[in-house]
Amino acid sequence: MLVAAGFKTISPKTPEQQQRLQQLQTGQVAQIQKNGRTYYIVADPPRNVVYVGGPTEYQAYQQLRAQRQLAQEQLQTAAVYQDAAMQWDTWGGWGVGWGRMGYAAGVGRVGGVGRF
Fold first, then answer.
1. Domain assignment of residue 101, yes or no
2. What gap in Å lies between CA 64 and CA 71, rounded to an integer?
3. For residues 10 and 43, is the Cβ–Cβ distance under 8 A?
4. Distance between CA 30 and CA 15 in Å, rounded?
5. For position 8, what pLDDT does the model report?
6. N or C: the chain end with fewer CB closer than 10 Å?
């Protein structure tokens, strides 16, 4: 997702850079200032890279994260509201007894409430 947002990957080239990489928290976005500019970095020691981006890339990353979160929430909501998940058959469904022509108490029968 970081690369999709425009972050660049940098591999450490010296033992000092390698040591710095190991000291950074994995997967956490850190803001740094260098030469009067703001950068955002994310360390990935298992892959031996650091992702580096500026404010524009960081904003794009936040938007991608928000879109992914929304998509996951919509997927979860859809799963909850699937008929199979709601088990309509255990509730009796919409069969006999529902609607004007059903057999619910006094509905749609001669002599019942509100003749149709």
1. no
2. 10
3. no
4. 21
5. 96
6. C
Q: Is residue 116 part of a domain?
A: no
Those residues whose C-beta lies under 8 Å from the C-beta of residue 59, and which sit 6 or more positions away, are none
Return the half-sphere exposure (C-beta side, CA atoms, 13 A cut-off) of residue 74: 6
Which tokens sit at 2?
A: 């970081």
Q: Which residue type does 70 have?
A: L
Phi, psi at 107, each rounded to 5° = -110, 125
**What domain range is 59 assigned to?**
8-84
Contact at 8 Å (CB) between 79 and 72? Answer: no
| Residue 32 amino acid letter | I
Domain membership of residue 106 (yes or no) is no
Q: Which residues of the chain have pLDDT under 50?
A: 116
What pLDDT is recorded for position 83? 56
Q: Give the C-alpha separation, 24 to 42, whole Å.
A: 8
Number of domains in the chain: 1
Q: State residue 23's pLDDT score.
A: 87
Residue 95 in domain: no
Answer yes or no: are the C-beta atoms of 54 and 37 closer than 8 Å: yes
Phi, psi of 75 (to 5 degrees): -65, -45
